[in-house]
Design goal:
CATH class of chain B: Mainly Alpha
Oligomer: heterodimer
CATH class of the largest domain in chain A: Alpha Beta
Largest interface: A-B, 30 and 19 residues
Low-confidence stretches of chain B: none
CATH superfamily of chain B: MetI-like
Number of domains of chain A: 2
Strand order of the largest sheet of chain B: 1-2
Helix content of chain B: over 70%
Radius of gyration of chain A: 24 Å
Low-confidence stretches of chain A: 363-368
CATH topology of chain B: MetI-like fold
Number of strands of chain B: 2
Mean pLDDT of chain B: 87
CATH architecture of chain B: Orthogonal Bundle
Distance between the termini of chain A: 23 Å
Number of helices of chain A: 9
Largest sheet of chain A: 6 strands, mixed
CATH architecture of the largest domain in chain A: 3-Layer(aba) Sandwich
CATH superfamily of the largest domain in chain A: P-loop containing nucleotide triphosphate hydrolases
Structural class of chain A: alpha+beta
Strand content of chain A: 25-35%
Number of strands of chain A: 22
Distance between the termini of chain B: 41 Å
């Protein structure tokens, strides 16, 4: 086990990439700490799988280096790297039994038969397949096959890291939760470095200590779930995380006042006039309903009751704005304004967060 | 819901019935007819019962032809299936060269049977054929019209040249349909090249290989034109396969009764063996799933 360093990494699937847009993975410098559990979160096609395949050695990057500890492994193959990876769709060896499937990676490394048998038993009990160990893997259901794939990923104890590429896509919801818990338990027990790719934010936030958000071939933020929630570094993080995502409103910012379509909004800090496309972002959790002439005038479209709270869908200057209201709160008939909590408003220039001139009352962040 | 009863619709099936009758049923019935009758000419036939069948079944000549036929099919399957798989594994997966390979592989399949026979007949001759000439120059006395083993070598080689492509193309199609994830998983699991073949490629090719074996068995069991052109069944009866014997019997000696009985049993053997092949392999498939 070792920490994994990505140094100046970039990858393009084209032989002669010209511009930035030819790269599936743009300039990337990143350190995956030894023994930590990461979630790699992003929309489909943002380069998550590419990054994973580069780490495991299935792909050689167009540029840059990968280090395991101090060892440069950029040109080394998967065998030398000794990494486990679980893919999105189940891969099982049809003609083998379930048990042989689980034992396969160990046998390929020439492990001792007694050790293999013990290890296979342990993994089988973990994925709940002890009864079918002697059965051929062919003809099992998709989620049983995927459990075998997961088991094969976890069977080796000496791996440098375990990579999961959206492994629970084909699994039943209740089993999903259980397997995720198992993975977490496994992580606590053995302390493998784990990287878990997903586009499901709940999955990411429950699995990982640290979440890495990717967008358009770039890492836009690395942080704890709280950091991603409180101070999204990029508008993508804002609206991708949270349900519903962050409200983004076009604005002109000067000092501690934002001007949104002619209406003033107080900010929690003051800013040097940012350049480019400027937006303010506020999470629906920090938006409240008001009447009279305080706040932004909106048209209320509808209220959705989702159980623990209600989601208010409204429109400001033709763009949707959402607010989260407490459970059971009745919307007053004269309500036509939304108020934002000033210290929770973020300012974004060309999609990236702008740091205010003075410290604001938000939690401390770790630098990316 | 009420079903409309209209028995006139049966007339729509009539053209197909007529066609099938003329193309298959009536000729086959003639053969059946011949197989149970005898004649002394003048188009007068009388009932013979199962006599011809008994004669054919006890004929030493038919027995040895049957043995040669089985050996031929066995040899060419044993060569063509592994060779075809090996070629498919070596072919490039995509790009310009993949297309070139596909076209080259398909070429022998497009050559008519008797042309293939002629090509090899000439190729093997020591006086004007390249292969025969080269062997002769190397001091190897190669003569397929005198030496039975040489005759077998040239007939088998010819069949391998003609038909291995079919196996290779089928196997190639099977290989192409394996998702990339399987290879990636195998790399992650640190499987050797042999294990990738044994546990991924071979099981995934099973379906197409079954078809390849069936097609090659049926075709080789019915082979006629090529050995007829190259060796004419000789030397002696060394390469007289079932169909060559049959034609000699039916058209050479004009023994229509025994020839008809022979044909029917020939047909039944092919049907039976193909059915056994198919059932065994599909059952293997199911048994593994359990």
């Amino acid at each position: 086990m070792a920490q994994i360093t990505l140094d100046n990494l970039a990858h393009s699937y084209l032989p002669n990439p010209k511009g930035e847009e030819d790269y599936a993975l743009k300039q990337l410098d990143h350190v995956w700490g030894d023994g930590e559990a990461y979630a790699l979160l992003g929309a489909s096609g943002c380069g998550k799988s590419t990054l994973l395949n580069i780490i495991s050695g299935l792909l050689v990057p167009s540029r840059g280096r990968i280090l395991f500890g101090d060892r440069d492994v950029t040109r080394e193959d998967t065998v030398a790297r000794n990494i486990a990876q679980v893919f999105q769709f189940p891969v099982v060896y049809d003609t083998m039994t379930v048990g042989d499937n689980l034992a396969f990676p160990l046998r390929n490394r020439g492990m001792d038969a007694g050790y293999i048998a013990a290890r296979v038993q342990k993994i089988a009990s973990m994925i709940g397949m002890e009864e079918v160990l002697k059965r051929k893997a062919r003809g099992l259901t998709a989620d049983a096959k995927q459990k075998i794939s997961l088991g094969r990923g976890m069977v080796r104890e000496d791996v440098n890291a375990i990579l999961f590429d959206e492994p629970l896509t084909v699994i039943d919801p209740h089993m999903k939760w259980e397997l995720r818990t198992q993975l977490k338990a496994l992580h606590n027990e053995f302390g493998h470095t784990m990287i878990y790719v997903t586009h499901d934010q709940t999955e990411a936030l429950t699995f990982a200590d640290k979440v890495v958000v990717m967008h358009d071939g770039r890492v836009v933020q690395l942080g704890t779930p709280e950091e991603l929630f409180d101070t999204p570094e990029h508008t993508f993080v804002g609206y991708f995380i949270g349900s519903p995502g962050m409200n983004l409103i076009e604005a002109e910012v000067s000092g501690n006042i934002a001007l949104c379509a002619g209406h003033k909004v107080a900010l929690g800090g003051s800013y040097k006039a940012p350049s480019g496309r400027v937006q303010i972002g506020i999470r629906p959790e920090f938006v409240s309903l008001a009447s009279g002439d305080e706040g932004l005038p909106v048209t209320i479209k509808r209220v959705e009751d989702v159980g623990r709270h209600q989601i208010l869908r409204a429109e400001f200057a033709g763009k949707p704005v959402n607010a989260i209201l407490p459970e059971g709160m009745a919307v007053p008939a004269d309500a036509n304004r939304l108020k934002f909590l000033p210290e929770r408003i973020g300012v974004y220039a060309d999609d990236w967060r702008v740091t205010p001139l003075h410290a604001v009352a938000t939690p401390e962040r770790e630098a990316v | 819901m009420d079903k409309v009863q209209n028995n006139k619709a049966w007339f729509l099936v009539l053209p197909v019935l007529v066609l099938v009758a003329f193309s298959a049923v009536i000729p086959l019935m003639t053969v059946v007819n011949y197989s149970v009758q005898d004649t002394f000419g003048n188009n007068v036939f009388f009932w013979e019962g199962l006599g011809w069948f008994q004669e054919v079944l006890t004929s030493k000549q038919v027995h040895s032809a049957f043995g040669r036929q089985l050996m031929f099919s066995g040899i060419i399957l044993a060569i063509q299936i592994p060779l075809g798989i090996a070629i498919a594994l070596c072919m490039p997966k995509k790009g310009f060269w993949a297309s070139v390979c596909l076209v080259l592989m398909a070429l022998p399949l497009l050559v008519p049977w008797n042309v293939v026979g002629t090509i090899w007949q000439i190729l093997g001759r020591a006086d004007i054929g390249l292969l025969g000439y080269v062997l002769d120059a190397l001091n190897i006395n190669f003569n397929y019209s005198r030496n039975a083993i040489h005759a077998w070598i040239i007939v088998v080689t010819m069949d391998v040249w003609h038909w291995t492509s079919l196996v290779a193309l089928l196997a190639y199609a099977g290989l192409q349909s394996i998702p990339q994830a399987y290879y990636q998983a195998a790399k992650i699991d640190q499987a050797s090249r042999w294990k990738v073949f044994r546990y991924i490629e071979l099981p995934k090719m099973q379906g197409v290989l079954l078809i390849a074996i069936l097609l090659r068995f049926m075709d080789s069991f019915m082979i006629y034109t090529e050995p007829f052109v190259v060796t004419g069944g000789g030397p002696g009866t060394a390469t007289s396969f079932l169909s060559i014997d049959l034609v000699k019997l039916a058209l050479g000696q004009f023994d229509l009764g025994p020839a008809a009985a022979f044909s029917i049993m020939y047909f039944l053997v092919i049907l039976l063996v193909s059915w056994v092949f198919y059932t065994v392999m599909t059952n293997l498939d199911k048994a593994e799933g359990r």
